[in-house]
Amino acid sequence: MDKQDQFSLSERRLRLLGPGMRQFYDFPFHPVSGQGVWLVDGEGKRYLDAYNNVPHVGHCNGVVVEALSRQAAALNTNTRYLHETILDYAERLLATMPPGLDTCMFVCTGTEANDLAWRLARAYTGNDGAIATRHAYHGNSTFVSALDCSTRTPERPNHWLATVPAPPDGTSPGQDADAYAGNFDAAIAALATHGHRPAAFYMDSLFATDGLDLPASGYLDEALRRLRAVGGLCVADEVQPGLGRTGTAMWGFQNFGIVPDIVTTGKPMGNGHPLAVLVTRREIVDAFFAGDRYFNTFGGNPVSAAVGLAVLDVLEHEKLSDNARVVGSYLKDGLGKLAADSGAIGAVKGAGLFLGVAIVDPVSGQPDAGRARRIINEMCRRGVLIGLTGPASNLLKIRPPMVFARSDADFLIDTLDAVLKAG
Ligand SMILES: Cc1ncc(COP(=O)(O)O)c(C=O)c1O
Question: Which residue has a Cα nearest atom 7 of ligand 1?
Answer without folding.
Answer: 110
